[in-house]
Amino acid sequence: MATLPSSLSSSLSGIKSKIGSATSSIKLPSIDIDKQLKNAKQSIKDKLKELKGIYSPDAGVNLANKLPKDCFYPGNLKQADGKYPCIRFQTKGSLGEGKGDQDYNIYLPIPDGLTFSDGATFGAKDLGLMGGAANDLVKNVSSAVSDADGIIDKIKGAFDGASTTAANILSQLKGVSAGDIASFASDQLYGTSVLASRSKIVAPNKTSMFEGNTVRNFSFQWKMIARTPEESASMYNIQRIFRLFTYASSASGSPNILLEFPPAWKIDFVVNNAMNTVKLPKIYGCYLTSTSASFGEERAMFMPDGSPLQLDLTLEFTEVRALNRQDIIEMESSFTGGTRGIDDNFKTLGTFSSDPNLTQR
User: Fold this and answer.
1) CA separation (Å) from 305 to 60, 77, 97, 302, 310?
2) What's the whole-model pTM score?
């Protein structure tokens, strides 16, 4: 059996000796198994708690804590203490059954192209041949019964007046040919179109009939760009509040059985910490009918935490009902605008007056 040279053998012995002395100086850390298991259990508990906060019925409470009562964009609206003219949106709502309602106030710049469209609807009504006589009859009888003195004679006179109108129509018919009169009589009795076959019709005597006022609608648009993390967070909260309260809530916790209306909104123009009561018209109580939030429409850019830098927000509102002139007078003569058709919980009222206590002020 071959043996190593004495010089090499001594070298290897020296190396072994050095390795032995080095390993003897290394101290391995002791592992606390119980502590490691305890930390692992706590980590699992924390993760389960986080998941519970997202998926459990208590998720609404956590969400409510993340949605502030007051939101401002841009940030200097808050810093300027209301010196700049702005528009304020107010509502109250719950983020889960039994979680309680919270007030929300959102302050934004007054958007470009602020438009108020007031309208009335009229339709054409055919009075026909005897329409004038019938109108005179109603007019004369209404005038007669408004005064009890000699009411019988006045009603008789009213009918006589209507008869006179009918007599005038008959006198005009004297100038009509016998063939046209016969054609008209045939049309009236048998529903034929003899007059049309003679290229003639009875004058429709059309008049415009008022059918009601239109329900007013309002549209607002903003292009928001975050300059600070605080503005980015405010943009997120603003669009989330508007989106959430576009939807109905389940009154009984059963989403497919009974739904409650989304809350109504109050919209005010504010300047110097007070409502702009003179320079701009007021808006009645409204429902939010559409919320459109577009992120990064021109370029998808984000903050380091993933928050989008740009938000294009479009809101569509419709007033809770069609208004009349008295509604406008009461709303615009009151500093607060009256109730505007909604109660303190931002539910619609059963009254048709925007401010029933106006005369007592």
Assistant:
1) 23, 24, 32, 8, 14
2) 0.65
Report how many domains make up the chain: 2
Task: Based on the fold, state whether residues 237 and 162 are members of the same structural domain.
Answer: no
Which range of residues forms the domain containing residue 243? 62-119+216-360
> Is a pLDDT exceeding 60 seen at residue 158?
no
Q: Which of 213, 231, 266 is the last residue of a domain?
A: 213
